[in-house]
Amino acid sequence: VERLTRHDVLLHPALPCAPRTYDTRQMAPGSTLLLYTDGLVEQRGHDIDEHIDRLGRQLAATPPETPLESALHALLETVGTAEPEDDTVLLAVRVPAP
């Protein structure tokens, strides 16, 4: 698991538009790219970095042949709450294995 710590401007209609930056990564066959909003890992009274680390550990422990939908359900059970306190988006893209 590689944690991408670089991020761009915040997307919010009340914030001014700013120039965007771009970055690239090579992804091996079978790799999964996981993008999420802070609503997935942020909970009042809990350390956000611990939730991010837990998400990474769960993803690393998931065998690459696990169907993506099953892997995402396991991730949500690991860090998700029954009633999120914030908007939550989870997007996953898997590079097909040969």
What are the salient characteristics of this protein?
2 helices; single chain; alpha+beta; 98 residues; two-stranded antiparallel ribbon; 2 strands
- On the 0 to 100 scale, the average pLDDT is 83
Question: What oligomeric state best describes the polypeptide chains here?
Answer: single chain
Query: Helix and strand string, N-terminal first?
Result: EHHE
Q: State the helical fraction.
A: 25-40%
The strands making up the biggest β-sheet line up spatially as 1-2
Outline: globular
Structure summary, number of beta strands: 2
Measured on Cα atoms, how large is the radius of gyration? 15 Å
Query: Approximately how much beta-strand content do the residues carry?
Result: 5-15%
Number of helices: 2
Sequence stretches where pLDDT stays below 50 over 5 or more residues: none
Strand-pairing-aware structural class: alpha+beta
- Report the end-to-end length measured between terminal Cα atoms: 20 Å
Largest sheet: 2 strands, antiparallel
What does this entry look like structurally?
This protein has helices at 48-61, 68-79; strands spanning 32-36, 90-94. By secondary structure, it is α+β, with helices and mostly antiparallel strands. It has a domain at 32-94. A two-stranded antiparallel sheet has the order 1-2. The longest helix is centred in the middle third of the chain and has 14 residues, at 48-61. It is globular, with a radius of gyration of 15 Å. The model has no long low-confidence stretch (mean pLDDT 83).
